[in-house]
Amino acid sequence: MYYTEDTILYLDGKWIKAKDAGVSLYNQSLHYGNAVFEGIRSYDTEDGVLIFKAREHYDRLRFSAQKMHISLTYTSEELTKISYELLERNNLTNAYLRPLVYPGENMSLVAGEESHVLLCAWEWGRYLGDTLLKLMTSSFQRPNPKACFVEAKVTGHYTNSILATTEAKQKGFDEALLLDTQGYVAEGPGANFFYEKDDILFTPKLGNILPGITRQTILELANEMGVEVRERQFTIDAVYQADGAFFTGTAAEVAGIESLDGNKFGLPWSDTIGSELSRAYNNRVQKKEYKNFELV
Length: 296
Ligand code: PMP
Fold this sequence. Notes:
Layout: E1 8-11, E2 14-17, H1 28-32, E3 36-37, E4 40-45, E5 48-51, H2 54-67, H3 76-89, E6 95-103, E7 115-122, E8 133-141, H4 158-170, E9 175-179, E10 185-187, E11 192-197, E12 200-203, H5 213-224, E13 228-231, H6 236-240, E14 244-249, E15 253-260, E16 263-264, H7 273-284
Parallel strand pairs: 8-9, 8-15, 12-13
Antiparallel strand pairs: 1-2, 1-7, 3-6, 4-5, 4-6, 6-7, 9-10, 11-12, 11-14, 14-15, 15-16
Bound molecules: 4'-deoxy-4'-aminopyridoxal-5'-phosphate.
Residues 39, 187, 190-192, 210, 212-215, 248-250 line the site of 4'-deoxy-4'-aminopyridoxal-5'-phosphate (PMP).
């Protein structure tokens, strides 16, 4: 349930009831997948409600909009301010926020002038759940970085994610792991991927993946913990030999993985660096000093 009778959302400068909001059936994003969005979490902390890394998320939203020629005139500060008001108006503390910037009615394949800004929020548990995941290597590759801006968060890119997750579920797995067009491991349908081997963490380098804000937080935490991380290309065979693995993402947070294509990882999850990082991540999102973006 994403909204109730009383839920309020922000649309183009107005606060309106979610049940009264609508969009034209001639909208360009509905037909061609052109819109940009973010997924952000807020946490109920000792210092009150904090939105984790709001600046990073809104900077990425503005970057995505610019790449897709969708006008977005709000600053990251303004969007953050609206986000806090959204939470307050809906009495939300531990919440998931979904900003979406979408074009107007337009059946052509040219980017138009019109754009709309939606912000809504709801309570959402950890996206991939709390139990260890059974993954399969997807038969779908991540999109070719020369066919689109993979580093932008564009709605249309998620048709690839929907195909991969649906295939995985239909085959009895929890989630998919996708390769890039060169056959190296890329990421999950909605999360970045790490594996560990002999106390070293490995994660795909940038280029074929969404540069995750959680991925970046994990790099920072690993650095503070003195854990070596290698960002590079690797194949699925390297992952089969891993001691452990996990996904990272705002919605999923740090999600431990039990097996890939039926091959279990070497260590029990509780003995992995990933499990330690998962605890460190939960602490970090609770701490004001890491909000690194003052309330406006
Ligand atoms: N990759 C993809 C394809 C995603 O959709 C997401 C979720 N936004 C991520 C990675 C993780 O990104 P973040 O940590 O910024 O949420």
